[in-house]
Model the fold of this input.
Amino acid sequence: MYKQASWNEPVIFNMGRSGRVGHILPKVEDEIKRAIGDLKTAIPENMQRATQPNLPELSEAEVTRHFIRLSEMNYGVDSGFYPLGSCTMKYNPKINENLASLPAINMIHPYQDESTVQGILEILYKLERWLAEITGTYEVCLQPAAGAHGEFLGTLLMRAYHKFKGENEKRTEVIVPDSAHGTNPASATMAGFNVVVVPSDDDGCVSLGALKAAVSERTAGLMLTNPNTLGIFEKNIDEIARIVHEAGGLLYYDGANLNPILCKTRPGDMGFDIVHINIHKTFSTPHGGGGPGAGPVGVSKELARFLPVPRIVFDGKHYHFDYDRPDSIVKIRSFYGNVAVLLRAYAYILSLGFEGLKEVAEISVLNANYLVKKLKEIRGLTLPYNSEKPRKHECVFSAKTLKNETGVSALNIAKRLLDHGIHAPTIYFPMIVDEALMIEPTETVEKEELDHFAEVMQKICEEAYTNPEIVLKAPHNTAVPRLDEVKASHPRTMTLSWRMHQKRKGKDL
Ligand SMILES: *Cc1c(COP(=O)(O)O)cnc(C)c1O
Done:
């Protein structure tokens, strides 16, 4: 079983010795002098440094070993099971990585003339068409850099639509369910809307009564994840769409959970007007740590006129950028988005095809329900919101009983899993489940891995009853022991770089 390496690795600034160097390269000063004249006068004065930067001085071998050791202290989806619910941490086939790093792709410059980048334009154009087909939308914009960015674009599109209809002043509210991801209300607020929260019913679905009470002539739209963050399919989606549309609002689909419905059903067919896709979750891009990702947005025919420019068009012979869209909300990101991420999605879709994508959905659902069956038997864990109902790609267990009976919380379970070489699931989200453990195995794990995970969970919960101390103090076998959760996320104590560290110590770099 893989566990993180645990070295006492110093920061690179505390390594090496003055005067030590890596490569010995030929002196270039003379050549530079020939090309641009004296260095001192060639660089404008305000851009010259008064002192040499304080860089670590190491040999090449020291640098290599330092970074390899750091990488071995890391844990990723290539190291083992990574059931981080909602995030869809699936294994990403290496062929997509190879394609994205081909020089023909990664040496393209966004300012190159259109005639010299016909190949990538064709790829992006086709990807837009495929994503439109997969989501049941009319046109797709590839620009947004993440899901949250797609949400922001989506809520701006809501605004553009209501403005076009002369109703911008009165459409001030966006409705989100209480199971929604935090980015939904954040995006709606950033676009200037007031957020109205609707509760879930006993089945874990949007309460129709509460939704009816919440819609009004102030409703700009509803943002919904389906299947929702409990992994439950909103069975009343037709009725939900009718209620929102009849009130004059639009339906926004948070596509973070597209994985389990790929090629089975489509948001567009459920009545959604605006759909974002988390390319880095569903369509194979390594993610975590902030990106880069891609959050393309698909819209219905009625909304296509508002999409950001440029649009890629094909005249039958050539692809080119079209800026001639008078109703466009202009731009949402520089150039055309994160092209290398989009290329991986193109390769992923091309290699799997319709049948392959459908199998992705089926196996992700099968795996989640297999785990549900096993975890339901564990003492201390419960599956809130209709435990008999099948889940889609993920499930949310509650450790509330375990906590009441033993003092061991969801957080403690998550930490103890690390001792077993398993990445922790998402905890304390969605907020409507106490002591939530949100588990998403994805389709890229084997049955043996699922069995192993269930066994480890069983063992940890047993330990909670027999030897709670060991779980309460976990992890014991990791590179760093338990972190101070508050300190680790507080802007005043978080130190993100060596420069910041030095500044805090009062040293100038
Ligand atoms: C991940 C996620 C988002 C946000 O997507 P990012 O790409 O991380 O910005 C939104 N909603 C849900 C349900 C998610 O899981």
